[in-house]
Amino acid sequence: MSAIVAVDSKRKLIQPNAEHRYVVTPADLPLACPMPDMYLWNSHPRVYLAIESTGWAKCPYCGAEYSLEKAPA
Hints:
Blueprint: E1 4-7, E2 12-14, E3 21-24, E4 31-33, E5 47-49, E6 56-58, E7 65-68
Parallel strand pairs: 3-7
Antiparallel strand pairs: 1-2, 4-5, 6-7
């Protein structure tokens, strides 16, 4: 089952907390859960996650795990 739940005029919006692992890129920083491409109405308050130093972060609200993909050299 796809986590994509709607398409607006600019982007596909995904359901928050539908998955527990996400890979993000430096373009996604600063990292916040839920992410901007997620619906917010049925999620938790936005929380910013420090991922830059370790390359990994876990949301204290929903338990989603984020891994930072390295930028190509």
